[in-house]
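Bench notes, afternoon.
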Amino acid sequence: MAGAYDDRDGKIWMDGELVDWRGANVHILTHAMHYASSVFEGERAYNGKIFESRLHSQRLLKSGEMIDMPIPYSIDEIEAAKYAVMQANGLTDAYVRALAWRGAGDDMGVSSKRNPVRMAVAAWSWGNYYGDAKTKGAKLDIAKWRRPAPETAPYQAKAAGLYMIATMSKHAAEAKGCSDAMMFDYRGYVAEATGANIFFVKDGEVHTPLADCFLNGITRQTVIRMLGERNITVHQRHIMPEELESFEQCWLTGTAAEVTPVGQIGDYTFEVGALTRSMSDAYEALVRA
């Protein structure tokens, strides 16, 4: 499957039924287009099985609750929709996108209680998110935008509105020849990349920012568990920018990113070392088990 995302063959699940890909449309006065009232999940399927599928479905429902947008489908219904989409499109290895949003209805202002909550699931083939960075190490810019304080937004919701500054930061990074950007949080601590969590290695131990104002990713949690099973110490803590100079290795985690080595952040360079490669290989083996 190739071409623009609105002009492809295949099926997309919308509001309980499979529709033609090109016909999966919404009205221009859809509330989410004007006020970012939407939440989503990005998932990957390997050999016909979506990794941690139910955890993603649970988080989608929780995200809807967090932004006062109850999603009218159960976990089992969402699970069935995801696999129906994969089957309809003949996919076994795929990226799966589940999305829920406030549609068009009686309200067209900030308040939208009378508008229906709609949902869709799409799936397509998608290779490495960062291209050849999986072997060479990604190059990251340092973003000017910061992750907001927890009292300003529901940071544990995977909500579309929280990605606006991520998009701006990634565009700026790509203009400089980088794959992505690392973001600080509102206090100036290291936070994450625009769509992936971040890990560092020093003296055989792993350090990762404390997820107290950004999404605690499912892949992040998986990798932390894997490190623990290997008796590798993991420090979840606040990391100051000046510490970047002392770290030896770095990698990103995310459903799209999987485990991707980082070779450079701004002026700081990192080795694509043994632990980074080991975790990347181990994660690949786990998701395909």
